């Protein structure tokens, strides 16, 4: 009888603790997330000049390394409220290089993306070299595989998920359920919380949140971009494929970057 009573008391304590935790657990419904993107330029340039026999390429790379760090750092901001968000680049304090050899489409992305999870649509302003496009389409469907691995990012416990996008790009994401908005940096959505960490190991790039600020976000703050030649994903893909016909080995990576 004493054993049964002890077990009952332990159960009461556990249930009480769980209830207290649930009551104190805070979910962020709106705010601003600051991201830091790092691109391993040395690795990207090494891939770019692989197979080139002209010593000019190697000389340009050595010159680049003397005046530029290994990792190019850029900053971006995700503003969100309930099921809408606006993702854009912070134009201040961005590292830059004038070297042609460091011209990498994926590293230099400056998309502005308005996402609406209720309608499952997005409006993306893409700067493709000298042209500005306004891409309106449905959200990309991503087949995420959620794992048991966790890590802390910007003070939030995040769980890892893996996926393949654009047929061959391997993506690792870390999301937190404490921020219920099912979005993240760039065009990545579809997890049970907000993506605070994103990595493309084979593309030598990462996006990680450095700060989460819970503040009211107005409709004006989430207004989608309006400038650019109107198109959808299918239309942009055709434009890119036509433009990249003579780009040889660099065509695929460039196409993937502007399709991200």
Short synopsis of the structure:
This protein is of the alpha+beta class.
Supply the helix-strand structural class: alpha+beta
Distance between the termini: 64 Å
Proportion in β-strands: 35-45%
Largest sheet: 12 strands, mixed
Order of helices and strands: HEHHEEEEEEEEEEEHH
Mean pLDDT: 88
Low-confidence stretches: 1-24
User: What sort of overall outline do the alpha carbons produce when their principal axes are compared?
Assistant: globular
DSSP strand tally:
12
Lateral arrangement of strands in the main beta sheet: 7-8-9-10-11-1-2-3-4-5-6-12
Helical fraction equals 25-40%
Count of helical stretches: 5
Radius of gyration: 22 Å
Annotation keywords:
disordered N terminus, single chain, alpha+beta, twelve-stranded mixed beta sheet, 260 residues, 5 helices
